[in-house]
Specification:
It is a single chain. The chain is of the alpha/beta class and about 260 residues long. The chain contains twelve helices and nine strands. It has two domains: about 190 residues, 2-enoyl-CoA Hydratase, Chain A, domain 1; about 45 residues, Orthogonal Bundle (Lyase 2-enoyl-coa Hydratase, Chain  A, domain 2). The longest helix has 16 residues. It binds acetoacetyl-coenzyme A.
């Protein structure tokens, strides 16, 4: 996948790395870059060579938000007709685990992109925030929804209204971030975690992700029914046979993702 202009991708040992690559503008997300991220993710999601996707930014930031230069002259109608956020919706349809590695700024659309990840590793120096309010607008790619679901209404409103920047430590306390690590170890630790997931049966990871996402949106009863069906579904897999047989034979399972 070398045809991209604004991102860089590589695959190693079943871990795909997507790096945002506009370091001169702190990886400001122009529309083409978002299209490229989605194209890469959907391709990697279908690839047998990939089990886990890691998303990070080159240079001194993860991403400092949507590209302000690009949208400064937009109108309500041009935005409605462009329907650019429909692309962001497709991110939640990615079935494989997405692990974010955030360093430096994750602001506005950059924070929204981080919130699209399933698990987040942050460097001690990472700063999260929604500065849209300072531009006379508000988040448009899921910020008000995803942050509120994660940390609750009162806390979300405080950060969204003030536009202040949240430290990695605070994001960890809120449960936004799974791990905070030294900046120089960020990618190494994230990839180490991704490689741990590579060892797990891929179909289980996939259906667990789907069920956990439903837990956020569904009432408990519907969520339980959904979970049950996914549980039943896994009994059609070779990995279920292998996993249980290996347990009984007291050996390590050899999962195939089938
Ligand atoms: N869009 C376009 N360019 C951006 C950008 C953005 N979101 N963020 C940074 N840049 C550019 C700067 O213009 C600058 O370019 P030049 O060198 O050509 O002047 C370059 O990146 C480096 O930035 P700074 O010189 O400003 O670096 P700094 O360290 O002094 O400040 C910062 C860093 C605090 C992140 C500051 O750049 C900043 O406030 N950026 C904007 C953050 C923001 O408001 N994000 C929200 C965007 S709106 C949004 O995301 C809507 C949505 O929900 C989809």
């Amino acid at each position: 996948m070398s045809e991209f202009q604004y991102i860089h991708t590589k695959v190693e040992e079943k871990v795909a790395l997507i790096e945002l690559n506009r370091p001169n503008v702190l990886n400001a997300l122009n529309r083409s870059m978002v299209t490229e991220i989605l194209t890469a993710m959907e391709t990697l999601d279908r690839s047998d060579e990939v089990s886990v996707i890691v998303l990070t930014g080159r240079g001194r930031a993860f991403a400092a938000g949507a590209d302000i230069d690009e949208m400064a002259n937009d109108t309500s109608i041009s935005l409605e007709l462009l329907n650019q956020f429909a692309e962001w919706d497709r991110m939640s349809l990615i079935k494989k685990p997405i692990i974010g590695a955030v360093h430096g700024f994750a602001l506005g659309g950059g924070f929204e992109l981080a919130l699209c990840c399933d698990v987040l590793f942050a460097s001690e120096t990472a700063e999260f925030g929604f500065p849209e309010v300072n531009l006379g607008v508000m988040p448009g790619a899921g910020g008000t929804q995803r942050l509120t679901k994660l940390i609750g209404k009162t806390r979300a409103l405080e950060w969204l209204w003030t536009g202040e920047r949240m430290s990695a430590k605070k994001a960890y306390e809120y449960g936004i971030v799974n791990r905070v690590v030294a900046p120089e170890l960020l990618l190494e630790e994230t990839i180490k975690f991704a490689k741990k997931l590579v060892q797990q049966p891929p179909l289980s990871l996939r259906l667990i992700k789907e069920a956990v996402h439903k837990a956020v949106d569904y009432p408990l009863y519907e969520g339980m029914q959904f979970e049950r069906k996914n549980f039943y579904l896994l009994f059609s897999s070779e990995d279920q046979k292998e996993g249980m047989k290996a347990f009984i034979e007291k050996r390590k399972p050899n999962f195939q993702g089938k």
